[in-house]
Every structure is written in structure tokens, then in C-alpha cells.
Amino acid sequence: CSMVETSLPFYFGWFLCPTQQEKLRNMANEFLSAVGSLEAFKEHVGDCKYELMNLQQYFQDKGVLHCTTKFCDYGKANGAKEYAEKQVVRESYGSKADLVLTALFLTPRTLGAQVSLTEAQLQLWPEDAEKEAVQSADLPRGSRAHVTLGCAEGVDPVQTGLDLLEVVLQCQQGDKGEHVQDLELGPLTYYGKGVWMVKLSEPLNTPAIFSSFYG
Ligand code: A2P
Asked: Residue 82: is its pLDDT beyond 90?
């Protein structure tokens, strides 16, 4: 294989600073405790596969918290080389960005945070990230942006963005879910099939570094 292929990372993304990671993990734990103790959650638990009600154990940590921009798979993924060679990618490498986290969600598969990208941050977002996941729909660019906070056993982190897009798609189709109640973090909505989302009444601003992971 060529030098170019071997020098491409596993993925590019924004990596949260350690103190921010801890802050977000604490927030996620708060979210899990609040949702897990709701009567409404217990009533809906049969809709999915949550086994014991301990959600903190149900979702396994997936390492350093980040928002993936481009999954390159060391060059094997479509468009990896083109992405790595983009001027904006080269110029932004190593720079700081302030990510805005606007919601936390959990599904029977994943636990994640929704990221609302700014216009400048969208420059680093691959053109086809949403289309690659949901071919049939016209989803706003950046709507897949997220931080994976945990996955159920046997589930890969790539699922988190797909779960988020399902909610976005459902809303786009006019199904705004069922407002359950207001948590301390913000209003909680149930979207059916074990999917819960809290919209943060105070979005979390998180400094992060645009970089890559080689593994
Ligand atoms: P995510 O960005 O949702 O966390 P893994 O450990 O499964 O190999 O994945 C490594 C990272 O790359 C994770 O951050 C993961 O998801 C992301 N990722 C894996 N596969 C894909 C894919 N096909 N498209 C986009 N991102 C991916």
C-alpha cells in the first residue's frame, strides 16, 4: 500500500478537552438517573431491550469523547483521501473550536449528545455524511453531528449518529414526539421505540481540538 494510504487516520474529528469530557459525562449521568427514575420510562421499558434498569451499566464507555467529522478507516472509506487533502482540513488541523451541544439522547442502542455546528464548523463537515446514512431523505447538513457517550453491549459507536438521524427524520416528517416532562436539564421528549431526548435549556459550550485519531 502507498504512503498516502498508510498516513491517513482512522478518523478526523473534534476532541473534547479532559475537563469538558468529565463535565459532559457528569451531565450524561444526570440525564440517565433522571430518565431511569421516571414512571413514564418504566412504563415504556417494554418497548425496547433495556434489561436491568441500571442505565449507567447498560451504556458502555467508548473512550475519548469526540465529534467525528470524517471516518477514514486509514484510507479505506470513500472520500477519505479527498477529505484529508482539503485545504480547510489542513488549515484547521490542531485548532480549537467551540462546539455547542444542544441535546442528550438515549435509545436501546446508544447514548449521545447532539452537536449544532456553526457555519464555520460545517466547512469541515463532509458533504455526504447525511446522505451516506439515509439515502432517501434530504436532511440538513450537519444533522448527524454528535458525541457518542456510550453504547449498549455489542453495538458500535457509528450507530449513535444513525440513531440521531432517525429522530431528525421523524421530526422532519411531522412527528414531534410526546413531551413527557421538564427535567432540570430541559424538556424531555419520548419518540417511541425506547428513544428519549432532552433538549438542553442551557446548551453546553464545549471547547474541542480539531485533530485525528490513528488508534
Ligand atoms: P461515532 O462518531 O458515532 O462515535 P469504531 O470504534 O466503531 O471503529 O469507531 C471509531 C469512531 O469512528 C467512532 O467515533 C465512530 O462513531 C466513528 N465511525 C465508525 N464507523 C463510522 C462510519 N461508517 N461513519 C462515520 N463514523 C464512523
From this structure: yes
Q: Whose CA is nearest to atom 25 of ligand 1?
A: 71
Q: How many CB atoms lie within 10 A of CB 105?
A: 23
For residue 44, indicate whether it is catalytic. Answer: no
Mean pLDDT of 161-187: 97
The answer to whether the complex's ipTM is over 0.95 is yes
| DSSP assigned state of 139 | P
Q: Atom 21 in ligand 1: which residue has the minimum CA distance? A: 158
Residue 66 appears among annotated catalytic residues: yes
Q: Which residues line ligand 1 (CB under 6 A)?
A: 11, 68, 71, 148, 156-158, 160-161
Closest CA to 77 of 123, 13, 9, 137: 9
130-140 per-position pLDDT tens digit: 999 999 889 99
